[in-house]
Amino acid sequence: MRRRDLVARVGLYTVLGAGLLVVVGPFLWAVLSSMKPEAEIRRIPATWWPEVFTLDNYRELLSRLDFPQAFANSAIVAVLTTLGNLAFCSLLGYALAKLRFPGRRALFLVVLGTLMVPSMVTFVPQFVLVSNLGLVNSYGGLILPFLATPFGVFLMRQYLLSIPDELIEAARVDGAGELRIFARIVLPLCGPALATLTILTFLASWNNFLWPLVVATTEDKYTLPVALALYSVGQNRIEYGLVLAGAVAVLLPVVIVFVLLQRHFLRGIATTGLK
Amino acid sequence: MATATAPAKAPAEANATAGARPPYRLRQGLAGWAFATPFTVLFLLFMALPVVASLVMSLTDLRSTDLRTPLAVEFVGLDNYARLLDDTQFRRAALNTAIFVVVGVPLTIAAGLAAASALNSGLVKFRTLFRVGFYLPVVTSIVALAVVWRFLLDPEAGLINNALRAVGVTGPNWLGDPNLALPSIIVMAVWRNFGFLMVIFLAGLQAIPAELYESSRLDGAGRWAQFRYITVPMLRPTLLFGGVVTSIGYLQLFEEPLVMTRGGPLDSTLSVSYHIYNQFGFGNYGYAAAVSYVLFAAIVGLSVLQFRLLGSRD
């Protein structure tokens, strides 16, 4: 019995370890290869650890592709999109969960109904709209369509339903205004939901591709994924050192934040997934 | 002190406010709409309007050149949808996307369930390490991962063919071979997405009461019987959710072929979303909108089908 347990345990660890190697290996190899000169990257047989260690690929990235600008664009768009969603989704989520107003049910159903709409359906009319507003190739054009997302409303409403009505009623009896109740009593209780919304919105924006690909038309407005994709697609013989350095620059900030905050990430995903 | 005076004061105050302020229901109605308005305005303009406009556009011959002269646009009824049937590129894209979903979704669910079961089997050490590692690709940019995978699959410099060469096998040109490009992208998608399902399934597994396993063990059930007759039935709502979410995502395959193969070779990795994007690029807005509605219908249809097949059988 004990011996069988040991065998099972060793087998389990072997399988899990192999799985981990398969999943994390490509990341490690990309990071290591980005620090090799192009000739070593293409050498057969390949080296695992860099024989010649160089940061030239990263230097090129800074000078040739205007990556600092793309990095700044991605950050600006992601931060403003996240702030907008935190504000608008929590306001509507609160109204849907706790306030009685005419049209509440209909509004909730319409918002919920668009949850499943693929971005491919909306992007052509969105593009026509944004170009009529004169916002093509501007931060406004990049941000506005994503400021108010149905998923955020759904998340906030579900969480707010769990806050007891008595708390809000008590504040009303004490004469607090609705905005004051929301800001002073309700929002401070929404920490976990707001954290989940922040993480998911920021990630979605940082990794978003289709919309910035269509709306950003000159290099000074490219976000990181757009700059990376257009550069690597535009080449016939790809310069691996350079594009891998670019990929690492896109991946690394997210990987670091994820590893540091992994508990919040995974808890948020699991709870939103099950609701 | 406040609590002592409150009961005495409350009725008087209620009477006073009834006169001074609008009635309670009206006040809450106004507050509700005040809270709802910022989101609703943005939502109507950038979400609801485009959803409707896309449907209308799909019934017209709108092209990019018509944006300055909207009056030149004509209604063409269902012509765009009829044109779809004769569009061999669309048929190829639809077939590729269907293969991607039908093969990719079950593989992703199986990998996610295997990882979740392994991590849930009483093994405590390093659990966080495995969870974080397996989840890593989920949070990272598809474009960046596609760049990394293009490198992994490179026939000369790639890690995979280097590994094959080490054991004396000459690896194929994964992304350059029409028969291997789509399977390669499927493997990459499973690699990237199973971690999400693992987290969802793990939460579902932990919600299954331990007594069920204990009593079945007393009845002599083995590991496999437990998995088959306790885990899978108890996990069915979670499996359904995972299947629906993964299918919705996989039906929209786009970034991977764009970065890794540009839809080739010979359209073997062209997806429906990629076809829509191309048609948009050619300026065929009306036609692109029609294809996008077909994709939308497929998403709704597949979700309904899964709910019918896997939903609660009461």
UniProtKB/TrEMBL annotation, chain A:
GO cellular component, one term: plasma membrane
Gene Ontology biological-process entries: transmembrane transport
Membrane topology of the entry: Multi-pass membrane protein
Highest rank taxon of the organism: Bacteria
Keyword Plastid recorded: no
Pfam family, one: BPD_transp_1
InterPro entries in alphabetical order: MetI-like, MetI-like_sf
Chain ranges of the ABC transmembrane type-1 domain: 71-261
The entry's keywords: Cell membrane, Membrane, Transmembrane, Transmembrane helix, Transport
Compartments (UniProt record): Cell membrane
Record-linked PANTHER family: ABC TRANSPORTER PERMEASE PROTEIN MG189-RELATED, ABC TRANSPORTER PERMEASE PROTEIN MG189-RELATED-RELATED
Similarity comment: family membership: Belongs to the binding-protein-dependent transport system permease family.
Protein name according to UniProt: Sugar ABC transporter permease
Automatic annotation (TrEMBL), chain B:
Pfam families: BPD_transp_1 (PF00528)
InterPro entries the UniProt entry points to: ABC_transporter_permease (IPR051393), MetI-like (IPR000515), MetI-like_sf (IPR035906)
Compartmental location: Cell membrane
Origin superkingdom: Bacteria
Family indicated by similarity: Belongs to the binding-protein-dependent transport system permease family.
UniProt keyword Membrane present: yes
Example GO BP: transmembrane transport
Annotated keywords: Cell membrane, Membrane, Transmembrane, Transmembrane helix, Transport
Membrane-crossing residue ranges in chain numbering: 30-57, 93-120, 132-152, 180-208, 229-251, 285-305
Organism this protein belongs to: Phytohabitans flavus
SUPFAM superfamilies referenced in this protein's UniProt entry, alphabetically: MetI-like
Membrane topology, from the record: Multi-pass membrane protein
Record domain ABC transmembrane type-1: where: 94-306
Gene designation: lacF
Protein's name in the database: Sugar ABC transporter permease
